[in-house]
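ingest -> fold -> write
write: protein_1
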Amino acid sequence: MVLAFVGFGDGAASLSGRTWRVGDPSWKESIVDVQWPSDGTLDGSELSSVRTDLSPDGRLLLLTRKLTDSGTGVLNSTQAALFDGKTGRPLGIPDAEGRFGPVPEVGGPYLEWGGWGCRPAWRNGLPVATDDRIRKAVIALGDDLVSVSSRYGSPCVAFAGNELRGEPVADTAAVWQERLWVWGGRLLVLLGIGTLIWWFTRRRSWNEGAGSGPVPYFLPTRG
């Protein structure tokens, strides 16, 4: 089954669900309709693009939207909210342990972070923000789950199956290789500059020493 959502216009506050199965002649309306939390409505100076992501187990639906200043076109941030994947009921944002608190009858809490464009991933059934840094999308964005090398050329990181699995393992060798890559060139430049300064200083002192030696003294003689 394919689940899709239909919205109309920029900054659509609600999305209507549609489903399609192999053999169906057309899309059908779904009971899953989602509405953006009322306390996260746009203030009129921002335009948004909305995107939905379903968790691998189909239990949660993540709704994200890009906030862009309508006057300058500058990206402000990303807002995210979670919903029940079967009923569309707003769930709010979980804590670090994955627990959901009570949600107000109207609207609900949402999460906001900088950046936009990288597709969120999932870990243990909970969303992971991948814009700039890879962190749990919880009430307070957690610590980095994965350290990405500065040599990685793409702005976004993709995971197999859109899911981050396994346990983190500290790779000391990789950490030092990254440090050497980042700081090695800078240290070599500083070492070269320091060597040149030392050489010119020593050369100057040698020249001054050669020109300020003791003046020879000759005793007067007769004849």
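write: protein_2
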Amino acid sequence: MFNRIIHLSKVLCVFLVMLVMLSACGNEQVDNAILETEYPSVTDGVKSETPSIDEPADIPVVVNTVVQDAYEDMISATDHLSITNDGYEFKGYPISKDSVSKIGSELVVNQGAMYEEIAGGLALYCDFGLSQSLDEAFFQILIGSGNEPENWNELANDLYSFILLDGTEKEIISKLETLDCVNGTFDYDVRSYSFEISDLEMAASDLHISQEMLGYVLAKLNEYTDDIVFDGNSITCSLEVKTFS
């Protein structure tokens, strides 16, 4: 009987040991299963987006036309003035001493200086048949070519109708009004004008002058108004001449 009890005790101990081992294996498998199980992430189903850095918008580069460059050079003509043994030059072209004034210690150039210099050359030719001043530089500025054109006599008289030494805004504006690219209101009696040149390149071509010369013509108008606004290849102009009786 005693021996049987001892045998049963041994069997019970072996059983308990096996039970403990089985329990340990089961826990390990469960742990592994837990580790190997793929659980849904809190971000599952949420579209991942990388924050984008806005690229700076392209800023259009504004390029002045030849007309505007010539106009602005004339408006700030003193910056391009040089003194020579013979007098004054604007960008290398001789201008009259009458076009330059001394205010305080500064020399100031008349905004119509280049217009008037070219007008002086036209006057000598059209009124007196003199062509001494009609050199390569003259033609280059006036028509964009250093050579005298074949129809120069006819062309000179046409240009002389609005490029005048003693002219006013009326001659310039009345000529501009004839162009297809110009529209606006024109009151010559009260000398009040508001107009647009929609295509400066076409205007220069239709006038048979260079774009540079057109810039100088507009600079001459600027003596009457500072309300000339460039917008690429076009301008708007409002001009009202005040007269005192």
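write: annotation protein_2
The two ends are 153 Å apart (CA to CA).
The chain has a mean pLDDT of 85.
pipeline exit 0
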